[in-house]
TrEMBL record:
The chain crosses the membrane at residues 27-54, 74-95, 154-171, 177-198, 261-285, 297-316. It is found in: Cell membrane. One of its GO terms (molecular function) is ATP binding. InterPro entries: AAA+_ATPase, ABC1_TM_dom, ABC1_TM_sf, ABC_transporter-like_ATP-bd, ABC_transporter-like_CS, P-loop_NTPase, Type_1_exporter. This is ABC transporter. It holds the Pfam family ABC_membrane. The lineage of its organism: Bacteria, Bacillati, Bacillota, Erysipelotrichia, Erysipelotrichales. The keyword Hydrolase does not apply. SUPFAM superfamilies: ABC transporter transmembrane region (SSF90123), P-loop containing nucleoside triphosphate hydrolases (SSF52540). Residues 30-323 form the ABC transmembrane type-1 domain. One of its GO terms (cellular component) is plasma membrane. Its main location: membrane.
Length: 604
């Protein structure tokens, strides 16, 4: 597969980039360009033929009995052949361009999908699946549309004016120049509007506002349950309303920007007669051969609608050029994300302890915005290491760095003494399992969803894991048991049930290192009890790193790490840390006070 990434840093125009993307289908693209040019040329044939018919009639007029009918008929056939050739050639051009476009779309989507699996996983969390879906479905699909439709039309719109100018000047250069005055004037008007900095800015802002409005609408609809639960309808709607207003403002600015140029352009293009007729009157007054003059005059009057048609087409093509520039840029933003480097000489790790060796990391690339700084600790093999701290302290960042969701900015993360950058991706993924709060289940059977942890697992092994994860009971009650497809109508799983399925997935994967993000809230004590039981089973004999939100669950951890504003401020066992009277001790006091407060009934 050809490389679909942009070959240079300098941004290319949408057209150049589309042609680069379709380079594997060069032959078809070239064929489409040729056929489209020929179709454009063929479209003029009927006009020429009609010109000769008029010419034949006028030569013998008023003695029409002298008219050579067979000659007239031949011109008629030529005109018809021109029309048919135009339709046929254009059809073949579009056919070839579609073949090229579908092939390109197929490769491009595959390549895009492959690329997003190679970029650091952390980007997926940052970019969001909605935006990636939009780029893949809408922006990339628009490239297919551009190659299939706009490209052949663009080629025709370049060929047609050239042929048109030749014909205009060849038949009678004086009428030709008169027509060209109108055409040039129309183009000057169009490009002074279209090419102006303000118009380009408006177009860019209009596209961004459109995207913002779409995002706000999706957020509004998706967040409706939360919005209603917290009675936030007005403020939430205010955000959507703001996005709609912003869009309206830019769409108006963009549309009003055309208010002078567009009518001027259309008026000139549709009224080239206004130039031709006075020129005709002037020339007619001095004509030597009146018949020949009339013939030429009629031809130009007939030809004018063709000019308007061609120029209108060019105008709409220029608009689609603006749009494709934006679509290609959005796609290339993703292609420009560097893939996570993979080692060419992978090392094997024999042990399963995790060491953070002076690790610093920044999401933004700016050193002054370090998410964690100079963090060093060891999570011993087979032991539980808990990470605690206030929100934004860097707990999730530490968890994400263990699976190379991102690469460290400084220092190193080691498993069994080997830098994780020297471990093959597959090996690393086999070594580490994640259980997040936000569980993603595929629209597949529950069996397959659990089996994702180990594709070779037998049905019995899946059931065993489900039992250990406390989900066998509720799965058995589903209409088709383990074969029930998640996401189908009427199949609903609670947050706790989904989390237990994720635990079953991790149990069946049986990797030696487990990174757990403990749920912040449990729906009910029954669920909490079941999840804790499932966790216990999952954690047996593993190296566990747990992001803890409630201190009660980690009192027995072998080691507790306290994070604050990206720094590791304390480390030790629960009793040691409480006795030390530092940050953890404060957190513990606050925690126990809160619990006592609840128990004594002061909580609402
Ligand atoms: N994707 C991201 N892009 C930029 N900055 C980020 C990103 N994720 C986290 N940060 C920043 O990094 C810092 C550490 O965040 P992190 O999520 O690791 O903290 P945390 O302790 O897990 O917080 P919480 O308990 O709220 O989940 C914060 O300042 C946060 O704003």
């Amino acid at each position: 597969m050809a490389n679909k990434k942009p070959k240079q840093n300098k941004p290319k125009t949408g057209l150049a980039r589309c042609l680069e993307l379709a380079s594997n289908k060069k032959g078809l693209v070239f064929l489409s360009a040729i056929l489209s040019s020929l179709a454009a040329i063929a479209s003029f044939v009927p006009y020429i033929a009609v010109y000769f018919i008029i010419s034949s009639i006028l030569k013998v007029y008023p003695n029409l009995e002298l008219l050579d009918m067979s000659k007239v008929m031949n011109y008629g056939w030529i005109a018809l052949a021109g029309i048919i050739a135009n339709i046929l050639l254009y059809f073949l051009a579009i056919f070839s361009s579609h073949m090229a476009a579908f092939g390109t779309l197929y490769e491009l989507k595959l390549h895009f999908a492959e690329h997003i699996t190679k970029i650091p996983l952390g980007y997926h969390l940052t970019i969001g699946s909605g935006r990636l879906r939009k780029i893949m479905d809408e922006n990339i699909e628009s490239i297919e549309g551009f190659i299939a439709h706009q490209f052949p039309d663009f080629v025709a719109s370049v060929t047609a004016p050239i042929v048109m100018v030749i014909i205009l000047l060849a038949i009678d250069w004086r009428f030709g120049i008169a027509s060209l005055v109108g055409i040039v004037l129309a183009f000057v008007v169009q490009f002074s509007g279209f090419g102006s900095g303000a118009m380009k800015e408006n177009m860019g802002k209009y596209q961004i506002a459109l995207e913002d409005m779409n995002n706000a609408s999706v957020e509004y609809v998706r967040g409706m349950p939360v919005v209603k639960a917290f009675n936030q309808t007005a403020s939430s709607f205010a955000r959507l309303e703001h996005a709609i207003k912003e869009y309206t403002e830019w769409v108006l600015k963009f549309s009003l920007g055309w208010q002078n140029y567009m009518p001027a352009f259309t008026t000139i293009i549709n009224n080239i007669y206004l130039v031709i007729v006075p020129v005709g009157i002037l020339l007619g007054a001095n004509a030597q051969d009146y018949k020949s003059f009339t013939m030429t005059f009629i031809f130009y009057l007939l030809f004018v609608p063709a000019i308007a048609g061609i120029l209108n087409k060019i105008m709409y093509i220029s608009e689609s050029f603006m749009q494709i520039d934006g679509n290609v840029a959005r796609m290339d933003e993703i292609f420009n994300i560097p893939v996570l480097p993979q080692t060419t000489s992978p090392k094997k790790t024999q042990k399963d302890d995790v060491v953070f060796d002076n690790v610093s990391f920044t999401y933004t690339g700016k050193k002054e915005e370090m998410a964690i700084e100079n963090v060093s600790f060891k999570a011993n093999q087979g032991q539980i290491t808990a990470i605690v701290g206030l929100s934004g302290g860097g707990k999730s960042t530490i968890a994400n760095l263990i699976s190379r969701f991102w690469d460290v900015t400084e220092g190193s993360v080691k498993i069994g003494g080997v830098d994780i950058r020297d471990i093959s991706e597959k090996d690393l993924m086999n070594h580490v399992s994640f259980v997040f709060q936000d569980i993603f289940l595929f629209k597949q059977s529950i069996l397959d969803n659990i089996r994702m942890g180990n594709p070779n697992a037998t049905e019995e092994q899946v059931i065993e894991a489900a039992k250990a994860a406390q989900c066998h009971e509720f799965i058995s009650k589903l209409p088709n048991g383990y074969k029930t497809v998640f996401g189908t109508k009427g199949i609903h799983l609670s947050g706790g049930e989904r989390q237990r399925i994720a635990i079953a997935r991790a149990i069946i994967k049986d990797s030696p290192i487990i990174v757990l993000d403990e749920a912040t809230a449990f729906s009910d004590p029954e669920n909490e009890y079941l999840i804790q039981k499932a966790f216990e089973k999952l954690m047996q004999n593993k190296t566990v790193i747990i992001i803890a939100h409630r201190l009660s669950t980690i009192r027995n951890a072998d080691k507790i790490i306290v994070m604050e504003k990206g720094h590791l401020v304390e480390e030790g066992k629960h009793n040691e840390l409480v006795a030390a009277g530092g940050r953890y001790s404060q957190m513990w006091n606050h925690y126990t006070e809160a619990v006592d407060w609840k128990i004594s009934g002061k909580a609402v």
